[in-house]
Design a protein that fits this description.
It is built from eleven helices and eleven strands. Strands 3-2-4-11-10-9-8-7-1-5-6 form an eleven-stranded mixed beta sheet. It starts with a helix and ends with a strand.
């Protein structure tokens, strides 16, 4: 896919109906020859819309007007490029726990959770949050994560978690204001509810920090998995992470995780992890696939706000 095509795809599949500002901005960039030429000088993994928009927001630039965004980006490109080269989209969206919960609650308890691409580890606390699936609430914590669920009988209770650890090339620290400001910049402009949720979830994590290890998802996974306590079900999971991993490393990870004890929960795009016999998604908005041990179970939205169960 061309760079322009990837921005159109982001606008239509991810931002439409979710962030009008980012939809308009992504479409404008897709037609902006000057910005496309600048993006073309970056490695492919550094050209993605959400990374560019988040870096500009973090630097204090405008994202609410495409013309102003163009002028700012062209004028400040050296600073933007430097941040693009060193940062990654580490959207630590706790809402994704809502689509993970039905699988986690159904596994043998208690659980030892190991998240690959953990960012600051906020998705390692599914037992501390509360959930609302349409009219049914599960759990009693904060924040309350809402999910429009189709074809699903919600679990009766949250899982029991006795160990939580994360693996990331660049783990973020929820007690570091700079790291939290980057997480805030990754949240889309109109999403005040997600900003409030970030603050609440960060407080949960800061009160009981997870084990976060700087490392590679292939080279360093076995050693971290081996630290999980005996008697707990190891669950290696990840959400919207593998698109950032080169194909060969992704394949090596899939082979490795299949050899580990316990279970593997993936929530990724079907172009990233391919499945045979996958039903068509009910809409373009549901563009991730939730799977357990390589078996697809549901279509999900990117931030966990909806899911359609077919497993």
């Amino acid at each position: 896919m061309t760079i322009a095509g990837s921005y159109v795809d982001f606008a239509v599949r991810e931002a439409r109906g979710v962030s009008p500002l980012y939809e308009r901005l992504a479409l404008a960039v897709s037609r902006d020859a000057e910005l496309l030429a600048l993006l073309d000088g970056l490695p492919p993994a550094k050209r993605q819309p959400n990374l560019l928009f988040s870096v500009v927001r973090w630097l204090g630039g405008p994202v609410d007007d495409p013309a102003a965004f163009h002028d700012y980006a062209v004028t400040h490109w050296p600073a933007i490029e430097a941040q693009l080269q060193t940062r990654a989209t580490q959207t630590n969206e706790t809402g994704r726990c809502a689509v993970l919960l039905p699988v986690l609650a159904a596994l043998p308890q208690p659980l030892a959770l190991l998240e690959v691409g953990a960012s600051a580890g906020l998705c390692l606390y599914p037992d501390r949050y509360a959930y609302r699936y349409d009219e049914q609430q599960v759990g009693s914590g904060e924040p309350v994560l809402e999910c429009d669920a189709t074809g699903l009988v919600p679990p009766a209770r949250v899982p029991q978690v006795v160990w939580r650890a994360g693996l990331d090339l660049n783990p973020l620290d929820v007690t570091d204001p700079d790291d939290v400001s980057w997480l805030d910049a990754l949240i889309w402009p109109e999403h005040a509810h997600r900003r409030a949720r970030l603050r609440t979830a960060a407080a949960v994590a800061a009160a009981d920090p997870p084990l976060l290890v700087r490392g590679d998802l292939v080279d360093d996974l076995p050693a971290l998995a081996a630290r999980a306590p005996a008697g707990a079900t190891l669950v290696v999971f990840h959400t919207s992470v593998l698109y950032q991993v080169p194909a060969a490393r992704r394949e090596a990870f899939v082979r490795l995780v299949g050899e580990l004890p316990g279970h593997w929960v993936a929530n990724e795009g079907p172009e990233v992890l391919r499945y045979d016999g996958l039903p068509d998604p009910p809409s373009d908005a549901l563009h991730n696939v939730l799977a357990l041990d390589g078996t697809p179970l549901a279509w999900t939205r990117g931030h966990g706000q909806a899911m359609t169960w077919f497993g």
